[in-house]
Specification:
Layout lengths: L1 H89 L16 H13 L13
Length: 132
């Protein structure tokens, strides 16, 4: 009886150890699979981070470019609108320089002009009428 119990206990111990070994092997296999999965996920994460950094750099470049472009286009639009607004009202604006009004010619002016004419040479010659 004692041997039967001993054999029975030994069989149960072997079965328990066998079960533990199988569980350990399954856990080792799961652990190895998870390590591979983690390595793949890390690699994928690094690739995605690299792509994100590249996309962020490109986005920043094009945002600066588009901001500068929009600013210049808005400045041009303001110039155009100002020119159009000015052109609309230009036809109704008074002249900036007033037209000169004709001045009456006085007697002194006509006398001075007559004296100048008298001093001119006759027929393109060299002799002039001396004024006295």
């Amino acid at each position: 009886m004692k041997t039967e119990r001993l054999e029975d206990t030994a069989a149960k111990g072997v079965a328990a150890i066998n079960s533990i070994v199988q569980e350990r092997d399954r856990l080792l296999t799961d652990n190895e699979r998870m390590r591979v999965d983690i390595a793949l996920l890390k690699q994928r994460s690094e690739q995605l981070e690299s792509r994100l950094e590249t996309a962020a750099t490109e986005r920043d470049h094009y945002m600066r470019f588009s901001t500068e472009l929009v600013t210049k286009i808005n400045a041009m639009q303001m110039v155009f609108e100002d020119a159009i607004r000015g052109a609309k009202h230009a036809a109704f604006k008074p002249a900036l320089v007033p037209k000169p009004q004709p001045q009456p010619v006085g007697r002194v002016d006509t006398d001075n002009i007559e004296n100048l004419i008298k001093r001119l040479p006759i027929n393109g010659g060299s002799d002039a009428n001396p004024v006295r």
